Amino acid sequence: MIKVAILDDYQNVSHVFVDLKNLSGKYDFKIFSEPFLNEEDAVEKLIGFEALLIMRERTPITKNLINNLKDLKFII
Predict the structure, then answer these.
(1) Best exposed site among 27, 32, 66, 68 by fewest CB in 10 Å?
(2) CB neighbour list of residue 8: distance below 8 Å, 6 or more residues apart
(3) Model-level pTM?
(4) How far is Cα of residue 25 from the mean position of the Cα atoms in its chain?
(5) What is the 3-state secondary structure (H, E, C) of the chain?
């Protein structure tokens, strides 16, 4: 199962755009509605995720963040 982090869904609308229920057998979704405190906090909370689905521009996707997420394969 692919672990997918949905970032910056502060309006809680990801379920409108992504059929989470239908995809739940193949993907393990975790929705992050609140912003991360800083880049360290983002790395700590996103370790182990294979995909980041970015909904807003709140979380900077830096080279450091990418380099620290060893399982990351997709940024959408």
Answers:
(1) 66
(2) 32, 33, 35, 54, 55, 56, 57, 58, 59
(3) 0.87
(4) 18
(5) CEEEEEECCCCCCHHHHCCHHHHCCCEEEEEECCCCCCHHHHHHHHCCCCEEEECCCCCCCCHHHHHHCCCCCEEC
The pair of three-digit structure tokens given for residue 8, joined into one six-digit string: 């910056």
Find tokens 């979704």 and name the residue: 29
Full pLDDT tens readout for the chain, 76 residues? 999 999 988 888 877 777 778 887 899 999 999 999 999 999 999 999 999 999 878 899 999 999 999 999 999 9
Q: Are strands 51-54 and 27-32 parallel, antiparallel or unpaired?
A: unpaired
Written as six digits, the tokens of 26 are 């193949």
Given the structure tokens 């993907």, which residue do they identify?
27
Match 């910056």 to its residue by tokens. 8
